[in-house]
From TrEMBL:
Main location group: membrane
Protein name as annotated: Formin-binding protein 1-like isoform X8
Cellular compartments per GO CC: cytoplasm; plasma membrane
Family statement: Belongs to the FNBP1 family.
Source species of the chain: Crassostrea virginica
Amino acid sequence: MSWGTELWDQYDTIATHTQKGIDFCERFTHFLKDRCSIELKYASELKKLVKSYQPKKKEEEEYQQYSWAARFWDVLKELHDLAGQHEVIAENTQGQVMKDVQSLISEMKQQRRKDLQDGAKVQDQLKESLAKLDKSRKNYEKAFKMAEKATDDYRKADADINLSRAEVEKTRNQMMIKNSQCDESKNEYAAQLQQTNQHQRDHYTQQMPSVFQQMQSMEENRINKIKSMVKQIADIERSVIPIINTCIDGMVKASDGISAEEDSKAVIDKYKSGFPIPADIPFEDLSNSSVIDTSNANGTPKNSLDNRKGTVSDKKKNRKDKKGGGGLFGIFTSSKGEESKEDFSDLPPNQQRKALNRKIDEFKKEIARETAEREGMLKMKDVYVNNPALGDPNALEKKIEENAQKIDSLQAEMRKYQGYLANMDAKPSPVGQRRNSLSDDSISQSSTNMEMSQTSLPGQPPVAANEPEVYTDEWPEPPSDEEFEEEGTVEIRKKPDKKAIDDEEDHVGEFEHAEGDFDEEGFPVIGTCRALYIYEAGNEGSVAMTEGEEMFVLEQDQGDGWTRVRKHDNSEGFVPTSYIQCHFYDQDEV
């Protein structure tokens, strides 16, 4: 259906209707703008919410200890991603739909202005033709009346006998002139009428329908564009639904990852003190002035409930003000201001053991990283030596030396904490254990059923069982062959009766070294090594080596920084582990 044929007489109405369409487009633009503003505000509020409840940097480690806290953190991450999708909706709506709507409004205004101008021009032409027709009709009416009057005058004059022949002839000529003018006016009126009718037919069948058709096309184009934009808005939102569903699935997965059993176990691992349960309170017989003491039957000191660290009473004393406490709902309290001792002796036994093991693992990772860095520099040095054009190998000497010193320092620190751990477990230090290849198995197999005593090296003061060894940043002095042989044999004794020893010696082992010889041939060759630096033997039990010297490895480094080697002249001794590059035969078997 066409507006030109159906609405031929509704030109003004159509003009008003098209203006309403433009007004709707502008209103639709405001709607999209407000919608984007709401989406952005919602995303911003969600991100603020996530930021308010996510753990601080110092609390992240504690969040990972419990499944409910860690999974809640995962939910916050998914919520942050979900907020980002609402930002995507707003950005795509602004960048695509709103831009198209504004372009459509501009095009419609321009097209409507042109169509109205064309319609006004056609309307003016029809009005002008009608005005000419009206004018010619009025001329014809005037001429017709004058012709009738002239005819009446001639008839009267012809009938009047008093008038002369000349006067009658004059009246007759006047009548003929008026009749002629009337005929001309009539012909002009007929011609103008025919022309106006043709113009009017063209106006209502061709010219105005053409204008109406243009306005109808403009309006239909607007409607189709609005349809497309509404669908585009839905497509934009549909495009983020899979990601939003993924975020929701992540939240569901996070909820499935919460385990009450694992959290209960984590609480035990974190807060278990390692103290035994207090024994029965002894009966005090005042009449005999004697005390029946059963508290030491299981190694628990008296008044352990009052003196033990980590108990409820001790925690109440050390509990600090929780104002401004961080974490989820303030459940995690900060430990600022609580400085623990170097050996963590201020912690309960179980927590102290965990802290020491964690510290040792940190040193091992750092040593592994530094060792990898050293190997990389050594490879680079070899490349520079083979191809001096790539770089100066001497430029790496200082860095390699600094790296070796750093490794030595880290190993010394690690040995110190290993000593703390060994003393805590009532075992010999790692340095004392490594000198006897048989002691590892014998100690591990009989540590629960046997007690061992350690004999100090010749020329050194004995080390008490419960006193921590003192470690320095310098290389430990390797033992001599005689000292090593004296340590070679370990005598294992059965534990004496618990009642015959003190509580402090209850968990402490003793080593007794029997005199005997340990043949050098008892150390099989387990690999080869190459000296990276020159080493001058400054201590008894160590051997000197030159850079690049090849040697046999008899015993691996047991954590004290020394490796036992045999040179090609059959001399044996210890060299710094960081000064050599080792290759073990068991690696080839793997």
